[in-house]
Amino acid sequence: CHEVNTRKVLSGLPAGSFSCVYYMPGNDTYYLGTRTQGLFIIKASGFYTPVIPKESGAQNFYAIGKTSQDVLIVKNTFIPKDKPAYYIPLHNDEFFAYVDKADRLYYQNDFKLYRFDTRRHKNEYLLNLDERLVSILPDAGTNGLLICTARSLTCLSEKDTVLWKKELPVNYDSESATGLFPLEKNKYILLTDRGVKWYDINSNKIYKSILDSVRFRSFYKDLSGRLWFGSDGLGAFMYQNGRIYKLPLGDLKQLKTIHALLNDGHGFFWLPTNNGLFQVNIHSLVNYITRKTD
Question: What is the tens place of the pLDDT at every residue in 14-38?
Fold first, then answer.
């Protein structure tokens, strides 16, 4: 007795019936022959588009959170890995989301910070925000959270009490924060709409600044110590050993605005942009911008 398993590999095909099929596993391509409509060559995609509930509204999704069960959370929509997406009326800000180890979603609504427990489906108010929320990250010193808005930084304890609050050391009248990322110990990278800052959280001082005329959106530090920055309109930059390298924008300037720099662990960056999603080989990219060849 032999067990036979089946799975759907293609859908939405351009013809109703096929007379022959040939598959090339090397490039995941199907050759589909028909009697009257000719030959179709279809390369399988590793992506699929989930059906979004109508209640979710416009699909302008910027912020994505993920639970320990691989459920994606985008705006007010929950997308399980192997089940239909469903709507939760959170009315959250669509530009930032954070999910902690207990699968609790932190989000902004009307300049207030809320937390939604995805396991118990319980929603609770935490605190008022003085500006748009830009980052939430764990605070190793208190086991709480650092809540960063466009103008201030707040430390929230494990018991949801405010331990301290600091105005960020930028001139808020002309500059605001766009992101906060850990660098080492008490040192952080503070992205702003006027450059990249090296920020000491203990002294609340900025001790280095670069590219002060550029608005930045994203940051990534790789295992080689290189710092990568994605900007709004001027592409991406790499910082290494005190030098700044500008990444190419592409033939059609498709990489002008980069929302995130995602390392897949297999040697590639995935770059979501205003012109689609791009995959770039990191080693080749570093060699190109530093003008090195193997």
Answer: 777 888 999 988 888 999 999 888 8
